[in-house]
Amino acid sequence: MAQTANENRQDYLEKIKPYQEEIARIQDKEKDILSHLSAFSEEAALQKLALADEMFNLTSCYMLENKIYQSIFNKQSEDMLNVSRKSLFKGIVYMEDIVTNLIDAPYSDYEDRVYALSGAGAEKVYSLVRKMGFTIDLLADEYGGDTSKWKWTFVDLEGRCAAVAKNVLDLRNILVNLDPRAPDYELTALYTRLVKKLLTQAAERFREKYEISSQRREDFLRGIDFLNALKRIHIILDERKEAEELKKTAEVWFQKLNKDMIKKKGAS
Taking the model in full, what pTM does it have? Predict the structure, then answer.
């Protein structure tokens, strides 16, 4: 016999109890850390790192609650999806607070921010960036992926993730760390490949957003910024062929943008 609406509600509340307790723990921890947070320093950077990690955990809790809601009521919980997105966004902002949201910028512009994270260790930082990307992918799927009205919002989140991923990479010592004899060689090599992939995807996704959806000049320029950020890494790594190809691609994209803007102006 089918359960009544009240029984469904009670079943739902019972099943989400563990997650509600974890959510309360995370929210209390966030309040405590923020109440003692100092101006930017190495200690503050590590605290923000912990906050970002907890926000991604919080996002997962909300998504699990949504799964339970869906299994009982046969529909998504808009409230759970909304708070999932907000906690994910907050976690990304905490990461940006540490290493900035700069895309195409000289490493010297944010090097002190990367240094502030040295106490956490590269493995922990890189693992958190991967967790951030994984959480974005999971939530995008919950929203319906490419069929969702939120599709282009996730392009922005993916781009911010790519920028953070690039900004935690120690470009000052990257060549040393990519020496096969270096202790962190494998970790650095794997992470560098990930950063290249994320920057490439971000560039393509912003170009796609411009062409299919927004027609906003800023979106295409954002895509070009990601190409140029990737080019900087290739130059540092002395990968001249790849850097030259990206330079040509960025020029082609910029020419197309200018033509589109002229056409748009003429049509108005």
Answer: 0.94
